[in-house]
Amino acid sequence: MAAPHTSEAEPKFDDMAPPRRVHVLLPLPLDSAYDYAVPAELGDEEIRIGDFVAVPLGRRAVVGVVWGEGPADPGQAVADSRLRPIAYRLPTPGMAEVTRRFVEWLADYTCASPGAVLRMTMSVQAALEPPRPRLAYCLAGPAPSRMTGARQRVMDVLADGIPLPGPTIAELAAVSSGVVRGLVKQGTLQEVQLPGEMTVPEPDWQKSGEILNDDQLKAASALRSKVDMGGYSTTLLDGVTGAGKTEVYLEAVAAALAQGRQVLVLVPEIGLTAQWLERFEKRFGAAPLAWHSDLGTARRRLTWRAVAQGRARVVVGARSALFLPYTDLGLIVVDEEHDSAFKQEDGVIYHARDMAVLRASLGEIPIVLVSATPSLESQVNVETGRYGALHLPNRIGSAELPQIEAIDMRGEAPSGPQWLSPALVTAMQETLAAGEQVLLFLNRRGYAPLTLCRACGHRLQCPNCTAWLVEHRFHGRLQCHHCGFNLRQPEACPECAAEDSLVACGPGVERLGEEVDELFPDVPRMLIASDTVRGPDAAAEAIQRIAEGEVSLIIGTQIVAKGHHFPLLTLVGVIDADLGLQGGDLRAAERTYQILHQVAGRSGRVQRPGRALLQTYMPEHPVMQALISGQRDRFMAQEKEARRFQGLPPFGRLVALIVSGRDEGQVIQTARDLGRSAPRHGDVEVLGPAPAPLSLLRGRFRQRLLLKTRRGANASALARAWVAQVEHPQQVRVAIDVDPYSFL
Ligand code: ADP
Ligand code: ZN
After folding, report:
1. 694-711: per-residue pLDDT in tens?
2. Is residue 632 within 6 Å of ligand 1 at its C-beta?
3. Which domain, by its residues, includes 39?
4. Lowest mean pLDDT across 33-37, 87-91, 242-246, 396-400
């Protein structure tokens, strides 16, 4: 183990028996754990492996985890006499062994440093300290002898008996804290302690859910028995949209709760789960804990602690929920397992679905992957027997799958800057006249994806990225969707200064909204994109309003495509079905199929039959044909053969290297050096270096290389060894992306 920076001022141990030496992993991107001494006054008993401890590092104190103990590697060891002592142990349960092994495995697989992975498990440092009970006040005695307006307001604020902290009272009653103190002195208010920890309502697993149909029953009892038997297993729950998959896996959740264990449900985007939370609460009489990046710090801290103490029984969250400190995780569910939002692209680059499978196998527990359009990876794992599979081929009750048709835009395209074909407009009129809802799907935020000068042909581009600026007319700005750079919509061309020469090219949802307003001026409509509804609460409200039929026309990006249940929706119009097929991504066809199938699946989920119309210039494309004919399995079989033939995932392994930096010369040099020292033998192929499609991103130049190996090879180890050999300037970053999903 390597040596932390030592200092003369620290106590030394040379006069005593050799100190107990422990290895402490710090949540920093370091190559290994550092050694520390357990000072005698802490007592040998007190420090155990897994404990959170504060240790000195240079001139600061850092909290890390005791990872091991005993002599360090010879040669690297710091002499006993120079070891610095642990400062203290934090009063919180230690990190479970399975979590520590998960950190190590994940670091190994993703080529990240264990410390960087550890940091993800310690994302809420404040949670390591017990919260202090908070002082609060409630009404206790008689009204004060002298009543003032301020005093009266305080008493009104506390009238319904709920104790509140002093600052809250002062704010609500618009009084100074002195008024509150005065009332305490008078005996009108009484001090009480609010508990510091969050109270977590207990889900009632004995409550019964919907009466399941035969298919659901079969699947549910198969999942229940996996949970009852215990041990690791991965099961793909593969069922059409609206088949009642959620109801089925909630049975598995009930089984795990009956065993007294914890459950994690991973979802691609937490903003979309309001309906899910409501259903869960209805099913079990208590809400689960939600975990996502929008949680406030206090909430994060309390949630983290509730999980660490085993009081939180069910957590639903985005990928980072995988790193919470479960004490006894008994089941993992990954809903919409095919969704690429499970891939984390920054920092430690990992795929949360795959790492959830790893976590389940380390914890020896079952995991359920759920989708109507399972990833090719998961389908192949089913075929080879690695995963089990359960099928739900029909929608609940009498609901039918929507009828999907293509609109051939080669004959139908409207002229001018319009995007709705006559066929789609007619269908919209019919649907609206029947009192039903229409969803128009266009996966493009803003007003127009490109602004161009008619006079000189100049395209408005981001100064920091290889990307066009997207017009957001509602805010009157042009914006980069990669780095957030934005500017006021200019009046003249920044290149040739021609006035009124800038034109918007192509549609975004805002522009589609304009077209719709002209055609259907009296129809209440809603626009849903990640920049028009911000945060989970706003999204929940919007989804609720749609579900309740407050609007008849919905225009949305992919955030409306997923998982929602809109009973009145019977027509889905896809404005540009070909959009996702552009670019050379190996999963472009698969992904386009998945998203279009998902969005079409919003239609006709109750009694009324639904339909979906796909505007396309390529109606013969295998993706469109598969959607129209409903022959998913044939399409996936073709995809599979193509990938097998090319040795692409899941039949071969890929690792991408992304070299980036602010100095283009240094980046190119490093990429070339990597290219020159690439591993070369029979099983390995290296493509590149080449400029990335996003060759400039947030001001950094980017080059890519791609390592391709056969399936069984240890691609992570190959990549790590390869990168380790090549020296490069400190300002250049070489990111390793094992199993890449993005090729930008
Ligand atoms: P999926 O997740 O497969 O798309 P859901 O689980 O969301 O499907 O179910 C679709 C709808 O059918 C939901 O509103 C759900 O409450 C309802 N549902 C599911 N199972 C049943 C059942 N057995 N009886 C009645 N309604 C059900
Ligand atoms: Zn940018």
Report:
1. 999 999 999 999 999 998
2. no
3. 20-96
4. 396-400
Distances (CA, A) of 251 to 246, 357, 359, 389: 9, 20, 21, 16
Q: How many angstroms is it from 477 CA to the middle of ligand 2?
A: 14
Rounded to the nearest whole angstrom, what is the distance from the C-alpha of residue 472 to the centroid of ligand 2? 15
- Ligand 1 neighbour 216 (Cβ under 6 A): yes
Check whether residue 375 and residue 286 sit in a common domain: yes
Nearest CA to ligand 1 atom 12: 244
Residue 308: which H helix or E strand, with range?
A: helix 297-308
> Given ligand 1 and candidates 245, 247, 398, 401, which is best to mutate, with the most ligand atoms within 8 Å of its CB?
247
Once rounded to an integer, what is the mean pLDDT over residues 312-322?
Answer: 95
What CATH number is attached to the domain comprising 663? 3.30.70.600
Tell whether the model's pLDDT for residue 300 goes beyond 80: yes
Residue 380 placed within a domain? yes
**Is the per-residue pLDDT at 4 higher than 70?**
no
CATH of the domain at 148: 1.10.10
Span 456-470, pLDDT tens digits: 999 999 999 999 999
CA of residue 359 to ligand 1 center, whole Å: 29
- Residue 89 belongs to domain with CATH number: 3.40.1440
Q: How many angstroms does the Cα of residue 7 sit away from the middle of ligand 2? A: 45
Please check the confidence at residue 1 and state whether its pLDDT lies above 60.
Answer: no
Residues 517 and 590 in one domain: yes
117 in any annotated domain: no
Q: Over the chain, what is the mean pLDDT?
A: 90
| pLDDT, tens digit (0-9, with 9 covering 90-100), for 8-27 | 444 544 455 778 899 999 99
Structural contact between residues 629 and 587, judged by C-beta atoms closer than 8 angstroms:
no
Alpha-carbon distances of 190 from 140, 144, 177, 181, rounded to whole Å: 5, 13, 15, 10
Report the nearest-CA residue for atom 4 of ligand 1: 242
Same domain, 353 and 299: yes
| Amino acid code (one letter) for 619 | P
- Distance CA(469)–CA(342), nearest Å, equals 27
